[in-house]
Amino acid sequence: MAPSAPTPYPVPRMTATRARAERYVVHGGAVLRGTVRISGAKNAALAFMCASLLTDDDLILTNVPDIRDAWSLSQLLVALGATVERLDANTFRLSGRGVSTYEAPSELITENRASFQVMGPMLARHGYASSVPPGGDVIGQRPIDVHLSGFEAMGATVTREGEHYVARAPNGPGSLRGARIFLDYPSVSGTQNVMMAATLAKGHTTIVNAATEPEVQQLAHLLNAMGARISGIGNQILEIDGVESLHGTEFRVMPDRIEAGTYAIAAAMTGGDVRLEDAPADVMDALWMKLTAAGVQVEREAPNIVRVAREGRLRAVSFQALPYPGLATDLHAPMAALLTQAHGVSIIHERVFDNRMLYVGELRKMGAEIVSTGSSAIVSGPTPLHGARVRALDVRAGAAVMLAALVAQGTTVIDEIHHLDRGYERLDAKLRALGVDVERTA
Ligand code: UD1
């Protein structure tokens, strides 16, 4: 395994056991005021890190969020033999130089969903890739058929060998062939995985029914900056002309629309007044529309600065969680927490995942009136919430209980906060700066 160079900012070792034993203790009642700077987008950064495997040159990524999923993916890349250096808390220098094994270690792959995106680059460059199914939140069936059938369409053979999926290119390294590929579902990571593989395939690839999420678009822009030839970016049909090789570049990770949305909801929920700095406001229309309909003031002060405030009462709004540009499924649970404080009945339909409802039971422990039926939830409000001992059951369910804790009377203790660490950089510090009484304790 190629050692990664020493760095003054080592990638934190995963301290799962410690994080699992830690909790947030939140004293409710704060009205959030001030400015919060939004971190880099988790889902963009993780895909970008996987893209580093496509070249031996240096890929410098700035604005990488300092989150657990980035640490675990770094460790996975290092385990493959790749070079990963952390130049400062949010800057990585990565390279596929030194990759010496094509088998992703199971314990790191199962840490997060994005890890499976090492498969496409490895298969394209080295002609072989092997991995167990990815991990990530338990938010329903998370199949990988879209990824695998995309690889197969490009000539790869995919077999199940024990726990592993093993993909082999037809004639070794660099032998994937461009193809016309229809994705059965516009999967975000599936589109990214297949798109990365196609950049180095021979000939032309068309991906039909591609995901259009901003993070997918950004990955395509990064790949083009590395020498790929992708057009149709942002459309459901992507056209890719394969190239011989990709080169290094420097690229800034876009800000995180889900983190920005979470703080916007926090401001709205507490009747506060918060300025979101470096928020990707242009890709958050669905949320702005729903918040406005709920009686929240949303003001664009500058292209990437949004002020979110509320004085009057919250009104119930119904919504569906949909692929982009619909309201993001990752904001479903945070929005549900908000709607416990809205006057009236809100109906939520989850259209992306089949088990996004883990938060419902936790919010009910705090006094929320929510019933869920399959992929729908009905929220009646406003209900006074009270502190309770609750769990962050996944990263966004965790955000929902944190939001509820902000307005709950008394003290809320949130367990299993390693889930929140996966996606929120310095959550407690950012909330404290906005006036929240929150401590992280062992
Ligand atoms: C990504 C995001 C996650 C977000 C989700 C939807 C990352 C690391 N995570 O997850 O935060 O909530 O997009 O915006 O980027 N599906 C299939 N076959 C497949 C793959 C997926 O049917 O091969 C289905 C899933 O069952 C699910 C839906 O597609 O119902 C969405 O999944 P997908 O877009 O793949 O989400 P992820 O990429 O896992």
Can you tell me about this structure?
About 30% of the residues lie in helices and about 25% in strands. The chain is an alpha+beta fold and about 450 residues long. The strands form six sheets. Strands 21-22-1-23 form a four-stranded mixed sheet. A four-stranded mixed sheet has the order 2-14-16-15. A four-stranded mixed sheet has the order 4-5-3-13, covered by helices on one side. Helix 2 packs parallel to helix 3, helix 7 (about 190-200) runs parallel beside helix 8 and helix 9 (about 255-270) packs parallel to helix 13. It starts with 15 loop residues before the first helix and ends with a strand. The model is unreliable at about 1-5 (pLDDT under 50). The structure holds uridine-diphosphate-N-acetylglucosamine (UD1).
Catalogue the ligands: uridine-diphosphate-N-acetylglucosamine
Described by its quaternary structure, the protein is single chain
Widest beta sheet: strand line-up: 21-22-1-23
Name the helicity range.
25-40%
Shape: globular
Unreliable spans are 1-6
- In terms of DSSP E residues, the strand content is 15-25%
Rg from C-alpha positions? Answer: 21 Å
Query: How many DSSP helices?
Result: 15
**What would the average pLDDT be, to the nearest integer?**
93
